[in-house]
Amino acid sequence: MLDAWLKRLETQHPKAMDLGLDRLREVWRALGAPWPGATVVTVAGTNGKGSAVATLRALALAQGLRVGDTTSPHLHRFNERIQVQGTPASDAQIVEAFERIEAARGALTLTYFETAILAALLIMADAALDLAILEVGLGGRLDAVNIIDADLALLTPVDLDHQSWLGSTREAIGLEKAGVFRAGRPVVIADPNPPASVLERVADLGSPSACWGVDFGLRYEGARREAFITGFGQGTVFPLQRPFPVAAPSFLGALQAWAALGNPLTSALIDAALAMTPPPGRQQWRALAGQALLFDVAHNPHAAAFLAERLDAPLDLAVFGSYADKDAEGMVRALAPKVRRWLFVPTPGPRGQTCEALAARLAPLCKEVGQPFNVLPSLGAEALQGALAASRSEGLKRIGFLGSFSVVSAAEAALLPPAQGAES
Fold it and tell me: Domain of 394: which CATH number?
């Protein structure tokens, strides 16, 4: 029944973004203005939002709090977008929420994403949460989650993405994302080089803040490497004895946000966060038939560069797909030092493009860096399995499935055993 509802939303509700929050607020009020939790954190930024959400969730669970969160997009199932106590919402819960929204909206139209956020708010409100974590889908100022006045805003690194909606510079994009800040309420800035527009917005609002590199972050003293969380009265320092499960700004920004809310930051909680499972599709490695398979949804140049830095050896083959409105050239350029050859694949939907169109865009760049490429016209299971088998016959050992969520989702569904697919 949920699948039928999702198809209905995709066809009956406007898929294109209709910027503005008035319609959404009206429906939200008609639903009784559901409030997601006793304490609410909004997470904005270009990259690392899901990682920050996962870290906050791990801290809350380790503390014994009731926690829920909403993220987007999903990798395999819509249910991933709404979680309570780390468990995705059930089909029945989501369908009930959709039915309530449909009854409340009257003649007003809602986008797919707006409907998803309202469903999340309803499910979270019913769950009586101690902590609700809301991930911004796009931008911040006009994003659906911004109908909620959060107790704290966490900003992860800002970079160029969705320029047609948010602006063509980091300053413009940063200002849009800073739209989730609230006067006098704490802001944690986990961007190592925040746009001036973000800092100016904090000052204008009089919001207490903590910034990467000043109040929290990493420092090196000789051979000693340690992390520190000192903003908002904290004095936590711990040695780096193992890698963070996610990018350092997201991880430490979440720890600083946790402390800024007045929560304890004990060594046991930090250990629990260090031991957490990263969000699906983030630098996930799987072994299959003698090959090492990497699945990563690095879908903009900043994320691609971070992935390249984390790769300890080149990929023999990168299976790559990107939506037409994304900077595929920037992503390939960032990844090129860690890729030996490319296989370009299509992306579906109105924002998608064929493998041939993608290859035409990237052919000059591949020639420039001296890397061969080929195309795969389908993301179907048979095509992906055939491509992997061909790579195995050529002796290629390290294979990456990169770029769009649709590419990673299709590859995991087609190639991984069911238990591994569910785990990822």
Answer: 3.90.190.20
What is the number of structural domains in the chain? 2
- Please report whether residue 328 resides in a domain: yes
Nearest to 400 by CA among 326, 349, 338, 324: 338
- In angstroms, the CA 324 to CA 307 distance is 21
Residues 133 and 221 reside in one and the same domain: yes
Two tokens, residue 9: 């939303």
What pLDDT score was predicted for residue 303?
Answer: 87
Contact 229, 252 (CB under 8 A): yes
Low-confidence stretches of the chain (pLDDT beneath 70): 13-19, 160-168, 418-424
Inter-residue contact 178 to 202 (CB < 8 Å): yes
Per-residue pLDDT, 221: 82
Q: For the chain, what percent of residues have pLDDT higher than 90?
A: 76
d(CA 316, CA 394): 10
CA-based R_g, the chain, Å:
21
Question: Can you read off the two tokens belonging to residue 309?
Answer: 């830095």
301 and 360, same structural domain? yes
- In sequence order, which residues have a C-beta less than 8 Å from that of residue 189 and are 6 or more positions away? 155, 198, 199, 202, 209, 210, 211, 212, 253
Residue 279 lies in a domain: no
Gap between the Cα atoms of 311 and 230, Å rounded? 31
Main-chain dihedrals φ then ψ at residue 220, nearest 5 degrees = -130, 130
What is the reported pLDDT for 241? 85
Give me the pLDDT at residue 422, please: 40
227 φ, ψ (degrees, to nearest 5): -105, 150
> What distance in Å separates the CA atoms of residue 62 and residue 1, rounded to the nearest whole number?
34
**In contact, 152 and 188? CB cutoff 8 Å:** yes
Residues 203 and 334 in one domain: no
**Domain co-membership, 204 together with 289:** no
How many angstroms separate the CA atoms of 300 and 302, rounded?
6
Which structural domain range is residue 288 located in? 284-423
For the stretch 43-76, what's the b/e string if a residue is b when 16 or more beta carbons lie within 10 angstroms of its beta carbon?
A: bbbbbbbbbbbbbbbbbbbbbebbbbbbbbbbbb
Domain containing 66 — which CATH number? 3.40.1190.10
User: What single DSSP character describes residue 277?
Assistant: P
